[in-house]
Recover the amino acids of this structure.
């Protein structure tokens, strides 16, 4: 935990240093970069046209996610703040989640359900971590708000992981399923 906090502090310091050097970006430069992001998205989306079925949907989700992340990063460079840094982390989490959900569509039955629950658990964890990091940056790592956000993120992540683990049990039958669910409940502290 202490190592994790130290690495977060180092990452935040590098992020702040990196964005402060770019903060001198003027409005015209910001608009030009924003136009480049939009043009790259259109090119990426057009490249998806040669694909079919779910591969095309995955390609489009990747293109859209790349655009959202690039726009969030640009905004964080233009107006550095803990809120904009959190928006970057959220955009990355959302992009990964959208792509993961599309990839799950290639599966069937319980495998698809488990895939979606796993993707949701990862998404929930990433969003929670972004909220906790934002609170730590704004209020200080030892503040009550930061600690509450970290606690909430841990609980939300635990709940999402529990749902994914429980979904795996649904593929089983009879006593095996009952034992699996009992084991999952015990592991995640559910009654």
């Amino acid at each position: 935990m202490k190592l994790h906090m130290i690495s977060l502090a180092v990452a935040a310091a590098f992020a702040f240093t990196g964005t402060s050097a770019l903060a001198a970006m003027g409005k015209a430069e910001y608009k030009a970069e924003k136009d480049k992001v939009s043009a790259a998205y259109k090119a990426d989306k057009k490249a998806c046209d040669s694909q079919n079925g779910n591969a095309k949907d995955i390609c489009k989700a990747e293109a859209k996610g790349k655009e959202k992340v690039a726009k969030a990063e640009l905004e964080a460079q233009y107006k550095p703040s803990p809120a904009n840094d959190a928006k970057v982390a959220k955009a990355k989490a959302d992009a990964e989640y959208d792509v993961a959900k599309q990839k799950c569509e290639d599966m069937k039955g319980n495998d698809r359900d488990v895939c979606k629950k796993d993707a949701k658990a990862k998404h929930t964890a990433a969003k929670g971590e972004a909220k906790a990091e934002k609170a730590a940056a704004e209020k200080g790592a030892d503040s009550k708000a930061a600690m509450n956000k970290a606690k909430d993120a841990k609980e939300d992540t635990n709940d999402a992981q529990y749902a994914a683990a429980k979904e795996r049990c649904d593929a089983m039958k009879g006593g095996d399923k009952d034992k699996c669910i009992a084991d999952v409940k015990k592991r995640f502290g559910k009654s």
Notes: Helices lie at 2-22, 27-47, 53-78, 82-104, 109-139, 144-169, 174-188. The CA atoms of residues 42 and 63 lie 8 Å apart. Confidence is low (pLDDT under 50) at residues 1-23. The chain is about 85% helix and 0% strand.
